[in-house]
């Protein structure tokens, strides 16, 4: 019996593996925190890229007195370049809509084009020819145009794939610098 007590006492006083036990218990928490930091960083970078892209597309579309189909197509070619390293082929779509009003006609989408990716998602503003309400805070006088640019991105979490994917939307409104841009040239 005395020998048994010595063995138990020796096991209880031995602390050589105590640090490894604490590390083994805390390591899953550290790994989850690291993965969460990567996921949040990726999510924030995506939002910054989307905001930068929607502003850049609006800025490019409002620079000239007239706009053509070829210029709009070239502008949409910028979207994948700005959005790098994010996939834009199947996860992104951008819309440029010219909103204007005449004396007897309410605010209407005069023309609308989309590009920059193949995501299937309609414009939240409306379709070409639709009468719309101008967002609060924006004023629109007769024969004046506002270009509304929307970008949609289908976000899927990078690491935490058990979370649901959803679509992120960013919008910007610009007034043309020179012309009215009420029509798009072929």
TrEMBL record:
Q: Which residues form the TadE-like domain?
A: 17-54
Q: Which InterPro entries match?
A: TadE-like_dom (IPR012495)
Q: Can you say what this protein is called?
A: TadE/TadG family type IV pilus assembly protein
What organism does this protein naturally occur in? Answer: Kordiimonas lipolytica
Lineage of this protein's species?
Answer: Bacteria, Pseudomonadati, Pseudomonadota, Alphaproteobacteria, Kordiimonadales
